[in-house]
Write a structure and sequence with these properties.
Elements: E1 17-19, H1 25-37, E2 43-44, E3 59-60, E4 62-64, H2 71-89, E5 98-106, E6 111-115, E7 127-137, E8 145-146, E9 149-152, E10 161-164, E11 170-175, E12 180-182, E13 185-186, E14 196-206, H3 208-214
Antiparallel strand pairs: 1-11, 2-4, 3-6, 4-5, 5-14, 6-12, 7-11, 7-14, 8-13, 9-10, 9-12
C-alpha cells in the first residue's frame, strides 16, 4: 500500500540522497588508521556558533578537523558528488566556495539532538552552508549499535521523520536546513577504535547577504 504524501509541505521529510560504496575500502581503511593514530587529538564537540560551548545535554561526541594527507583526496571525492546531489535534491545550483569537513567519533552514549546545520553558522560569515554530506565508516566487525541519522520534517511537532542506518562507506546528502539528529550510540567495549565514525562535509557558497551589504 502506498503512503500518501502530506499535503502540508512542512510535514514532508526533506529530500535526501544516499550513495553506497562512496570511497572504496582502501580509503576507508586509511581513514580508520588516521582516526586511530590521531585519537589523542580528538576533542569534545561543541554546539552553537562562533566559538561554541560544551553542552552534554545536546551533544556528546569527539571531533578532529585535521585529515592530514587525506584531506585533498577527500575533498575531491566530496566535490565530485555535488552535481548529482544538487540535481537529485532539486536544489538551486550554486557556486561552491569551499568544502568544510571534519571527522567525528561517536562512542558509547554519544548523540546529537535535533538541530539544523545552518544554526551553527558564524553570523555575517562570508560563506554559508547549503548542502550537508555525511560519510559513515567503522571497523569490522561492527562494534556498536544505534547512531542512526534521523531526518525530520520542518514541522515543530516532530511527528514525521525517517531513520537512516549508518552503513559503512555510505554517503548521505541533504539540505543544510533540514532538521536532523544522531540517535544514541551503544558501544559496549568503549574502545575508541570501535566508534561510529563519520566525515561531515558542508558545501559552502558565498553569502548573498554579505554581497548585498558590500554593494
Amino acid at each position: 500500500m502506498s503512503v500518501k504524501e502530506p499535503s502540508n509541505p512542512f510535514d514532508r521529510i526533506p529530500p535526501y540522497r544516499i550513495v553506497q560504496d562512496f570511497l572504496g575500502n582502501d580509503l576507508i581503511e586509511r581513514l580508520l588508521e588516521h582516526a586511530k593514530v590521531r585519537e589523542p587529538e580528538f576533542v569534545s564537540t561543541k554546539v552553537g556558533n562562533t566559538e561554541g560551548h560544551l553542552d552534554t545535554e545536546v551533544r556528546i561526541s569527539r571531533v578532529l578537523p585535521d585529515f592530514g594527507v587525506l584531506r585533498t583526496e577527500l575533498e575531491l571525492r566530496f566535490k565530485g558528488a555535488m552535481p548529482e546531489a544538487i540535481a537529485g535534491l532539486r536544489l538551486t545550483p550554486f557556486e561552491l566556495i569551499r568544502c568544510e569537513i571534519e571527522l567525528v567519533a561517536h562512542n558509547d552514549g554519544a548523540f546529537y539532538k535535533r538541530h539544523i546545520d545552518t544554526q551553527t553558522e558564524i553570523p555575517n560569515a562570508e560563506t554559508q552552508r547549503v548542502l550537508t554530506g555525511v560519510l559513515y565508516f567503522y571497523a569490522l566487525p561492527k562494534g556498536f549499535s544505534g547512531g542512526q541519522l534521523r531526518l525530520y520534517s520542518c514541522s515543530l511537532s516532530g511527528e514525521n521523520f525517517i531513520d537512516i542506518e549508518p552503513v559503512r562507506d555510505q554517503l548521505v546528502l541533504f539540505p543544510a536546513w533540514a532538521p536532523h539528529e544522531v540517535l544514541p550510540v551503544s558501544c559496549p567495549s568503549g574502545e575508541f577504535a570501535q566508534s561510529r565514525f563519520a566525515v561531515n562535509c558542508w558545501y559552502r557558497r558565498a553569502n548573498p547577504h554579505q554581497a548585498i551589504a558590500h554593494e
